[in-house]
């Protein structure tokens, strides 16, 4: 039963990614919203409250996205993308904020769906 629920959640998460991508601009010459969300999809169970700690593949995705967020323009674009995704997917904000610490990764911007992406 739990496996069936997780399968439904993964399918719903994938569909929501498509909706977010259609509403989000891509970063010029850098990682796009689509690429970032694809790399972070393995974090979904943790971010929705299933399982602790985040998986190693989740942490690797966070690390990859963080490394590719190497300009202010890209970071701002990803911030807006992730902010929208967090709201759309009903991500638990506290879990999102804990990702860098749990994955032992430095990120260039706070992982917080309430942060002002323009600062």
From TrEMBL:
The keyword Disulfide bond applies. InterPro entries: Bifun_inhib/LTP/seed_sf, Bifunc_inhib/LTP/seed_store, Plant_nsLTP. GO terms for molecular function: lipid binding. One of its GO terms (biological process) is lipid transport. Pfam families: LTP_2. It comes from the Eukaryota. Residues 20-109 form the Bifunctional inhibitor/plant lipid transfer protein/seed storage helical domain. SUPFAM superfamilies: Bifunctional inhibitor/lipid-transfer protein/seed storage 2S albumin. Residues 1-27 form the signal peptide. Keywords: Disulfide bond, Signal. Transmembrane segments: none annotated. Belongs to the plant LTP family. This is Bifunctional inhibitor/plant lipid transfer protein/seed storage helical domain-containing protein. It comes from Castanea mollissima (Chinese chestnut). The lineage of its organism: Eukaryota, Viridiplantae, Streptophyta, Embryophyta, Tracheophyta.
